[in-house]
Amino acid sequence: MVTLFQMALAQTRSVSGRVTDQKTGEGLPGTTVLLKGTTNGASTDANGAFSLTIPDGNGTLVFSSVGYVPEEKIIGKETQFNVALTADIKQLNEVVVTALGIERDTRSLGYSTQQITAGQISQKSEPNVLNALQGKVSGVTITNSSGLPGSSTNINIRGITSLQGSNQPLFIVDGIPISNSLDRTNGGSLGTLGGAQTSNRALDIDPESIESINILKGPAAAALYGSRAASGAVIITTKSGRNANKKLEITVTSGYSLQQVYGIQKFQNDYGQGLNGTNLTSLPAAGGVYGDINTGSTASWGPRFGTTPTIANGLLLGDGSLLPYQAYPDNIKDYFRTGHLLTNGVSLRGGNAEQNFILSVNNTNQKGIAEYNDLQRLNIQLGGNTTLLNKVKAGASVNFINSDQLGSAIGNGSSAFGTLVSIPRSYDLQGLPYINPTTGRSVFFTGTDNPRWNRQYVTTTSNLMRFISVANVSYDVTPWLNVLYRAGLDTYTDRRKGVFTPGAARVPTGQVLDQVYFRSEFTGDLIATLKKDNLFTDGFNASLLLGQQVNSRRAQTVTSRADNLGVAGFPNSSVGATFSNGTGETSSLRRLLGYYGQLDLSYRNYLYLTLTGRVDQSSTLPRNNNTFFYPSVSAAVSLTDALHIESDLLSYAKLKGAVAQVGKDTDPYSLATTYNVASFGNNVANLNFPFNGVGGFTLGDTQGNPNLRPEFTRSYEAGIVVGFFKNRVTLDATYFYQTSRDQILNLTTPATTGFQQRVANAGRLDNKGIEALLTVTPVQTANFKWDVTANYTRIRTRVVELTDGVTRASIDGNAFTGTIPSIVVDQPYGVIVGNKKATSPDGKYLINPNTGLFVPEVAGEIIADPNFKWQAGLTNTFTYKGVNLSFLVDTNQGGDVVSFTNNFYKSAGALAETGVDRDQPRVIPGVIANTDGTYRPNNIQVSAQDYWRSFGLQSELGVYDATVYRLREVSIGYALPKALLSKLPFGAVSFSLSGRNLLYYAPNANFDPELNTQGAGNIRGLDLQGPPNARTYGANIRFTL
Amino acid sequence: MKYSLFFRYATAGAMLLSAASCKDYLGNNLDPNNPQVVPPGAILTNLEAHTAFVTTNTIGRVSELFMQHYAGVAGQPASYDTYAIRGEFDNEWQFDLYAGSLADAQNIITNGAQNGPAYTGIAKLIKAYNFAFVTDVWGDVPYSQALQGSAILQPRFDKQEDIYKGNTALNIQSLFDLVRDGLKDLDQPAGTTIPTSADDLIYGGRLANWRKFGNTLLLKFALQISKKDPTLATAVIKEVLAKGSANYISDNADDFQLTFGTSVGNQNPFYSFNGPANNGSLATPLGNRPLEQMASRRFIDSLNLRNDPRLPQFYTTSPTNAAAVTTAFGIFTGYNNGSNAGIPAAANRSRYNTYIVGTSGEAPVRMLTNFQTKFILAEAALALNSGENAQTRFTEAITASMTKAGVPTATITAYLANPVNQPYVTLSGSIEHQRNQIITQKWIALLGNGYEAWNDYRRTGYPRLAPVDNPSSDSPVIPQRFFYTLTEISSNSNNVPNPRPNITDRVWWAN
User: Fold this and answer.
1) Which member of A675, A749, A754 has the closest CB to residue B106?
2) What is the ipTM of this complex?
3) What is the C-alpha to C-alpha distance for residues B143 and B160, in angstroms, rounded to an integer?
4) B-chain residues within 8 Å CB-CB of A835?
5) Distance (Å, rounded) from C-alpha A3 to C-alpha A67?
6) Quick one: closest CA in A to B269, which residue?
C-alpha cells in the first residue's frame, strides 16, 4: 500500500503558496494560478493561498489577477510559491460595474463606459458630484446653471435623444434607480420665473461617499435598464466595508473652501446715471425732496464724471444743491460676498469580503456667493454585508439625506440677480438704503425691486428628507446558478416655501407658496445567473442572466398658495386673503414590469459576445400596446490576444461594436383628454379660477391619444481600444450613431384645431458623434510619475422630422416670447428662435433712413445654436513620493448663449465698451434702401447711446459664442510617508489644496458663458439675467485611524 | 444541506409567486388630477371670463393704443404705440382664442346632447362673438374646419367674406346663421340643465338677456359688413328691429359685460397691467407694469374740446406740471401717442379712472352695450335705411354712454342742451359728416373697448386720427390688422395665406 501510494506521488505532485499584493503585502484572493499551456489551474482563497496538483516534471506557473501584472514562475523542484504581484500600471482590463450591478471586465465590453474613481471626485471643493465630473468624461456634456449653492447641473450623455422627454441619464446607486429630478418650482403665478434655482437631486449624493462612478454611455451599455436609460446611465457605487481588510478603519475628512463671484462683465466708470448725457434725478421726488437717485434713469448714459454741475445736465438740483455723483466701480461685484464651503465627514468601516459594515456621516455647509443663498446637507450612510453559514449572502444599506437650500429669486425682471442690470454706475448699491424702515418695502426705482431687498425678501427655501435604501439577498443554488433578489426604495419629501413679501414688483400684493413634493420609487429585481466555463470546448465560457423587475414610481405635489398677504414680513399663508389660486394636489403613479435576459459568451478571453433582450410592460401605455421588446448585441475582440501579438510597441488592441434598441413608455395619463381648472393670461395680467368664488374648467390644451405606441431609440457604435509602449499610451475611441423615431411627443398642432398639442408618435432625431479618451504616462520612475488624461467629445444632433405640416415646435418650459428654445426640422436640437435684424439681399443690415438705426427685426428666425462643436478636457497628474499635483483644463468650442444680462448692461451703457469714445457719434454699418430698389451705405450718425441701445435685448446681436477655455480644477496633495506614520496613531494622513474654476478665457464673450439660467433640462443657451459663476479654492485633510 | 435545499425551493417559489402576482399590478392609468367630465356650467363660467379677458388683455391694450384712447410710454406699450407689433399676439391666437374660448364654446356645442339647448345656445352666440373677433383682427382665418382636434389637423383658412356671409359650396356657415342657430336653441324648451346665477357670470342664467345679446350681435355683424353688402346689412337690421326692442339690448342693464374681482388673478386686465387708478398709491404700485402706460394727450384734447363731462370719469386728474392741460373738469396730463418727448413723472400722470379699472380692478369689461346698440342703430338709420330716426338714436347713445360712465342725469341734459355742444351732439351736414359725428362720439364712448373702436375706424375712417408721431417702419399708418402668428405659420404652413398680408392691408369688410 505504501509503495503504491508513493508511486502515485511520483506521477503527480502538489504545489502550494500564497499570492500577495506587492505594495500592501495583503493576500490577493481570486488570483488564477495556471500551469502554462494547460487548463490545469486553481484560484487563491480569501487569504491569497492556493494549492494545485500538477504532473511531475518541468513546467511554468502563471499567476494572473485582474489589475495586476501577471507573473510566471518556473516550477523546478519548488513546491512552495510565494508570489507578490505588482499592480498593472494601466488597468486596461479593470472591473467595472455595468447594468444591474453586474461586474464586468472592461476588456469584454463591446460598448463604451468610463469609470471615475473616488480620488477624481472627492475633496474637490465641490458638493455637487455632477460638477465634479466636468471635463473628465468623454461623450458627456455637463453644464452647471450658475455658481449659487444647490443650483442644478445639466448632464447629457451623447447628446440629446428625446425631443421632449428627459435627456438626463438614469442614475443608479448601489443597483437601484434614484431620482435626479429637478422638481422645478412652479413659482405661483409666475411659472418658471418665480422661484429660486432648484437642485437636481443627484446633488443629494455626497461625493465623499462614492467609491466609483461608471458612466454607461449609450443604449447598448444600458439596454438592460430599458427605457429609462435611453440617455445613458450613471452607475454610482458607494463605499462599503468590503475592502477594509478586517480591521476597523476610521476615516475623517474635512475641507474648507472659499468661493468668489467670477465671470461678470467689465464695466465703464466714466459715465453715471442718466440719459442723453443728462441726469434725470434733478426733479423732486414725490415728497418734494430733490436728488432722490431712485427717481432717475436706471441707465448709465448720464454726464461724464467730473463734469461741471449745471441745471441742464441735472447735476445741479432745482433747489440749488449738488447731486452727489461719482463712480462706484465695484457696485456690482460687491453685491456678492465671499462664500464658504465647509465639509466634514467621518466614516467607520470594518470587516472583510464576507462580513463587513460601514457607517459614515458627512456634512456640507455652504454659504453661497450671495447672501440668502445657502446649502446645508447631511448624509448618513449605514450599510453592511454578510455571508451566512448556509452561503446565503445578504446586504443592505440605508442612506439618509437632509438637504436644506435657501435661494433668492432668479431670472429676467425683478429678481435678486435680474435687477442688477438696473444699477447705474453711479449707484451706491451697498451704501444706499434698500428697505423702507416703516413699510418694509423695497427702496429702488419704481416698478422693480432693489436687488438687495429682493434677495432677502423674495426667497425659496427647500427642506428635503430622503432615504435611499437597498437590500439584497443572493444564494448560490448550485455552483453554476446564483439567484439574487434586490429591492430598493428611493423616497423623499421636499418641503418648499416660496415667499414674495408684499411690495415685490413681481407679485406686489405678496404671496406665500408652500409646496410639498413627495417622490417615491420602488425597484425590485429578481435575477438568476447561470454560469458555465469551458462549455462544449475549452476556453468557451457562457453565462446567462435572467431577471424580472418591478418598478413603481409615485409622486405627489401638494401646493398651497396664499395671495394678498395682510401682514408684511410674516411669511405664513395664514395672513393671505386669497387662497384658491394654484392651490391643489397633483399625484401620479406609474408602474413598469420588466423581464430581461443577458447572454454572455466568451472564447479564450479574447472574443466576447453579449446579447440582451428586455420586455417591458408599462402602466402608462394603452393596454393593448403596453408590452414591448427590445434587444441589443455587442461584441469585442482583443486582437493582441487573438493574434498572439506580444510587442512592446503595440501592447493591446481591441475592437468593439454594439447595436442596441431601447423602448420607452410615456408619462402617466397621456391617453385621455382631460379638463383643467381654468387659468390664463401672462405675467402682466392673468385670470385664475375660482373667479370671484366660482369655479371654472377648460378642456385641456393637449389632446390625449388612446392609440399610443412605445417609442424606440436605436444606436450603433464601434470603437477601438489600443495600448502602446506597455500600455503607457492608451486610446479608447468610439463612434456612435443614434436615431430616435416615433417618439411620443406633445406634438404642436395648429391652435386652430382647438388644441395646442396632441400626444402622438412622431418625429425623428438623429445623433452622431465621436468620443475619445487618451491616457499617457510620459514619465515613470521609482519616485516620480507624470500621467496625462485627455478626452474629446464631438456630437452632432439633427431634428430630421416632426410631422406633416409642422416645421418647428418650442421646447416645453420656454419662458420668453421672442427667444424660444425650439425644435426645428433640419436643425440641431434646441436652436433658439428669436428676432433677427432685417438685412438687404446681400446680407447687410437694413437701416431706417429717418433714424439711422436698424429697421424692425424679423421675428421667427433662428438666432442661436447652443450645441457645442466639440469639447475636450486635459488632466495632468504629477506624483512625486507622497506629493500629488493635478490640474484639469477643459474647453467647450462653439455653442451660443443668448445673454440677457450682457445685453441689458450694454443697452444701459454700463459695459466697458459703451464708455469708449462716448462723446463721438457713430454710424451703424449697414445699408439704406433707395426707392428704386437699390441700396446705399448708411451714413447717418447716431449718438453712442442710440448706437448701443439699438442692438436690442433679444436679437441675434445679443448672442455670444460660448467658446471657453477653463482651468477647471487644480489640486495639490501630500500624503505623509509610512515611516512617519508608524510613530503616529494614524493609518494614513493626507492634505490637499484644491481649486475649481480658477481661470477662464472666453475669446468671444465678455463674461463667463457657461451659464444656463433655466437649469438642468432641455432648454440650453439662455442667460436670463441669472446669477453668475463662482470660483472656489480650499484646503482638505483626510486621515484614518 | 437542509438549509440549501430549503432555499432552493424558496427561491423557485418566490420567482413563481412574483410572476403570478403581477396581473393587476399595472393599474388603470386614470388621471387622478384632472377630470374627464365636468358639468357645462363650469365650462361656461370660464368661457365667459376668458372672452372678457381677451378683449382687455394684450389685444385690448394694443387697440386702445391704436385708437389713441391711451398712450404707451415705456416697454412693450411704447413699441405698440408706434405700430411695432411684429411677431406678437401668438398667446392670444393660441391660448385665449382658438385653444381657449373657441375650443370651450365648441366643446359645449359638441356635447350638446348632455348639455342641453340652453347651454349650446349660449355657446353658439359666444362662439360667433369670438369668431367675429378673430376675423376682424386677422382677416381670413380658420373657421369652418377649425376646432375639430385630430380630425382636421391642418384647418383651412376661410375668407372673411365667407365667414360673415357663409358659403354653401365650401360648407361654411355664416356668422349670422351661427347666431340664428344659437337663438333657435335658446327658444327650445330649456329642460333642467340650465345656467344659473352660480355659473353664468354675465346674465345670471336669464335666457331672455342672452336672446337680446344674440339679436344685438346680428346688428353688430350687419353693420360690420355694411360697406361691402349694404343690402344684406339692411335686411338683417330690419329683421332684428322687427322683433321689437324687448329682443335686443335696449337698456344699460342689458349690457353684455363681465364684472371682474378685486383679488389678484381675478382683476380686470387693464388694472393688472397698469396698476391703480389712484396716483396717491404709486409708491406701492399694484399693477405689474405701472409705468408703461398713461393717458393719451390726444384723447384729453378731444374731450376737452367737446367739454365732455366723461373726461374725469375716464381719466384721473393730475397735479400741476409742465405737461398738464387744464380743463373745466380739472387738470389732466397725457402723452402724445408715439412721441419722443420726455415722459411725465409717474406721480404726474393721468391714468384710466375707476370707470375702466375700478378701485381694485373690479371694473367690468364691456363687450356689447346699450350705447353701442344705439350707435349702431343711429348709423343704420342714417346710412342703411333702417327706417328709424338717426338723431333720436344718436342722442340715446350719448345719453346711455354718459349714464354708464356715471355722469349725473342733470349734467347730461344740460350738456346736450348747451348750444356750444351742438356741433358734437346734433347731426348735421352731409351723410359722411353725420357719420363722422356718430363714430366720433362712439369712439369716445368706447374707451376701454379699443377693439370695437378700431373696427369702426377701419370700416369708416372715423374719427380722423392722425398716425402717431414716430411710427415704426412696420406701418406708417394705423394698422389695419395683425400679422399671422408664428405658431400658426410653422404648424399650419400649407394653409396660411401666401403671400401673407401686411398689417397695412385692409381686411375684406374695410375695403
Assistant:
1) A754
2) 0.90
3) 9
4) 86-87
5) 45
6) A685
